[in-house]
Amino acid sequence: MKRLLLTSFLVFTAIVLHAQDQKWSVEANYPLNISDNLRFGELNGVVDFGIKYRFVQLGAVNIGAGLNAAFLKNHDEWTYGSQEDVDVVNDYKVKKLLIQPKVFAELAIPGLAKLKPQIALGYTIVKDDYYYNSGSNTEVDDNSTDGGLNLNLGLSYDISKRFFLQIQYDYININKKGDTVINGETFRYDYDDNGSLIKAGVGFRF
Fold this sequence. Notes:
Distance between the termini: 27 Å
């Protein structure tokens, strides 16, 4: 088994190192959340991974498709007292997984070949896991999957033939519609949730 894994790794490495067209790229980013609304803005970025494939070249423009997956979360716990209850413990947990397929255009600037601006339009699938418990007073448990359009603007800089640095801005518009359970009772909700992320990271072309 170890020999098979080692052989597979060496074959893949050889293919990557000898590939000339570099139509593929993979990337790893840190997603910095700069949203200011209540539900999206409270989250902390953890990691974002992406893969892209460039299938058409029109002059200085590469057209392609890509897929990113970003993970954000927050966990907070605090204590307060009241006339009825003393030292009530509040437990708040939220996790958000973003799956982002997109189509993009990447421009090669004449005379500045290392810089590559990019614009992309895609759809974001959002999986939320939300839990809040306020002692014995309130309990909210909500798991949902929603979606909406997103716009991506990016700029990459080649530090070598294959490795690059990049920064991106994502604007995400999500329509959240479904049910949530509060203290055992189900409530309907329907609202728009907007988010903004700045993703900074590194990539590899092959």
